[in-house]
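Dear colleague,

As promised, here are the two records you asked about, laid out in our usual form so they can be pasted straight into your sheet.

NAME FIELD: protein one
SEQUENCE, THEN STRUCTURE:
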Amino acid sequence: MEEKTRRAIKIDLNQFKLHIHLKHKTELTLHFDSPSRMFYLAVIALVVNEMKRLGKITSIPMEAHSDLLALLNETIGGTAGSSDSEHLIPRIYRKWKDALPDLENGPLFKVIGRKKELENGVGKTYQFTDAEKDSWANLFEYRGSHESVRLRFSIDKLGAGLDDVIIIYEGYQNAEAWEKFISSLKQKEEEKLEPVELIPKEPEAPIILPREWKTILRKPWRWMVVAAAVILIVSALFVWRGYFYSPTGRVASLDRMAFPLPDKPSIAVLPFVNMTDDPRQESFCDGLSEEIITTLSKIQKLFVIARNSTFTYKGKPVKMQQVAEELGIQYVLEGSVRKAGEQVRITAQLNDALTGRHLWAERYDRNPKDIFVIQDEITKHIITALQVKLTEGEQARIFSKGTKNLDAYMKAVEAIYLCHQTTIEGNIKARQLAEEAISLDPNYASAYRALALANIIDIWLGLSKDSEESLKQSLELYKKAVTLDASYAMGYVGLGYALMMARKYDEGIAQAERGLDLAPNSADVVIGYANILLYTGGDSIPFFERAMRLNPKPPNLYLRKYAEALCDLGRYEEAIAQFKKAIEREPEDIFAYIFLTATYSMAGREKEARASAAEVLKINPKFSLEQFAKAHPYKDPATKARLIDSLRKAGLR
C-alpha cells in the first residue's frame, strides 16, 4: 500500500493541479494557473485517459482527437491561438517537446511550495537536481511531429503503472471524471452560443397609405407604373428568399444529424448521374466523382466523405437534407453527364444543406478526353465557394498529375475496384486491365499501383506460385508509382504495406505516414495507415474510427479490420459484433469468418468457434493455415502465434 501511495500521480481537473511523486522521493504539486496553462494539463489528462482506455502505456495520436483539442482550446484554453488542427496540434507538439519537460524554468506551471532563485546571478529558476529534472522530463515522450504527432505520458519511467494514475473531477475519477469534465465544457460552450434577443420586437402597425399615394392610385397610368414596381420588388423578394432561405422541412437539421458536424467545411460528392443512353458512360461518371473526392481529400481544411458512402445513393432519388443528415456534413455536390454530339455536357452544383442555398453551379460542354481538366475546374470552384485557403504545398500537389489517356484511366479505375473485391476471378481480370493501362500510358502512376495491388491480392488468396517474387514485383511497382507521382498518397500507403509484408516495419510506417500527410481526409489512406499500425502493434483504433467517420457507410474491409483491432485488445464481444455485421453484408467474406473463428476461440466459446471454422471450409475447402500465416505480417511473433493457435484449436489446419 505504501509503495502504491509513493507512486501516485493525481491529475486534478477541479483546481488544475498535478500531484506527482518523482524518483528520489521528490513530491511535487504543479499548478497550471492560467487558461493557456490549464489547456496543457487537460492535454496530459487526455493522453492518460486514452492510455487507460486502451489498457496500456502507449503513444496517442493527437490528430485523431482534433475536435476535442479544439473544444479544450476554445473553453479552458481561452482561445489562446488558432483551434484549427493544422496550427493547434503543432503548437501542442512544441510545448510537449520543449516547455512541459522544463521543470527548472516551469514555463507552463508553478511549483507549489517552492520559490525560484537566481541561477548564477542571471535568471530565476526552480532548484532541482539533474536526476529530478531528468525524471520529470522523461515523462514527455513523442513520436512523429507537428500534425502527425503521437504523445506518450511515460509514467512507466517512474516505475508506475496505469493504476497508479488518477484523474479527478468533481466527485468522479478516471474515465467517468474525464467524461463529466468534457460534458461540462460542451454545455458551457452551448450556453455561450445561445442567441440573445438584443432588440425587442415592435408590435405590427396597420399600413396607412400617404396622401400622395392615394393621388397616384387614382390616375391609371401612374397606377400601372406603381404596380410594375411592386411586381419587381415582390419578384426580387422571392429570388432573395429562394436563394437565402428554404421552406421548412427542405433543409438539414443539426438535431437530426447521425454524427456531429465537423469543425471544418464538410462535403459529400454524390455520384454524377449518367443521363445518356450509353451504359458505358457509367464508368466515366463514377470516375469523375471519384477523382473529385480524391482531390478534395488532399486538403487539410476540408472534411470529405469517402466514395463508398456517397455511392450508396447511386441511382436513387435522394434529397440533399437526407444526405447531409445521414453522413453528418453540410455541403453536397451533385452533377450529371449528357451526350451532346461528340461532346459530353457535364453539369455540377454545390449546395448548402443547412440553408438550402445553391452556392455554385456550372455547365461544361467538352470532349470526353478533357475529363481531367473538368474535374480540376470543379474542384477549384468548390474550394473558392467554401472559402478554403490552400497552403503552398496543397496548391502544388492537389490537381491532376494522372494521365491524358481516357482509356488508360478507365482501365486503372476498374482494376483497382476489382482488386478490392478480393475474389479469384476479379483479381485475374484486374491484373489484365492494369497491364493494359500501363501499355496505353507507361507514365500513369495509378496503373502501376493497380498492378502492385493485384500482386498483393494474389498472395492473400493463395494464387501466387511464388509469394516472394510476387511481393518483390509489388514493391517495385509501388516504388514506380510514387516516383511517377510524388503526391500519390495511396501509392505511399500501398508501398508501406508491401514493405511491412517484407518485414521492413519501420520503413513501412514511414511511407504510410507520408501518404497520410498528403491526403489526411482520404478514408482509404487513413484505414491503410491504421491497418499497418494493426500489424505493427501501434494504436490503430483511433484511426479506424476516424476512417469510418470519413466513410459512415463503410465497406466490409473497414468493419473487419476494425474488428481485428478490437480483438487484439481483448474486446472480444465488440469484435464479434463487428465481424457478424460484416458477414451479414457479405456472406462469402472468408476473412471475416477466419477472424470470427479466432475471436470465438480466444473468448472461450469453442462451440461457436468450430461452427465458424466450418463456414471457412465451406467457402474454401483447401484453406491452409500455413498460407494464411504467411500472408499476415504481424511484427510481434506472439500475436501471430496466438492467432494461429486459436484457429488450430477451432479445427482449422
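NAME FIELD: protein two
SEQUENCE, THEN STRUCTURE:
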Amino acid sequence: MSKPRLQPGPDHPITITPTGSRVTVTAGGKVVADTTNALTLQEASYPPVQYVPLADVDPALITATDHQTYCPYKGEASYWSLPDAPNSVWGYQEPYDAVAEIKGYIAFYPDKAEVRIADRTAAS
C-alpha cells in the first residue's frame, strides 16, 4: 500500500527560510554542530525547527541508525543517535519537492540537544 503524499497549503503551511544567525547545537557538553547556514522550517502550528547542514555537524558525535518515520508532507525521515540519546537526530535524505531545501540538513530533538540561535535558545 502506498503512503499518502500531501502538499503544503493554507490548511497545513510549511515555510523554509534561512535562519540568518549562527546556530550551535550542544549535547553532553560537546558542540555537535556550529553553522551560519541553518534553515528554519515552520510547519503549521508546530514550533519552528532548526535544520543544520550535515557538513557543519561533527560526524564523530552522531551515528546513523536504521530507524525511520514518515511524514506525508516531507517524506521518509532517517535518524541518527547522539552518544547518550538514541534516534535524537533526524533528516530527510530524499525530501519531497515542496521541502527540497532540507536535503542534506538534519534537526535535533530539543529535549536531547541544546539548539541555540545567536544569543537565544531555540525551541528546536
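A couple of things worth noting about protein two: The radius of gyration is 14 Å. The chain has a mean pLDDT of 95.

Best,
R.
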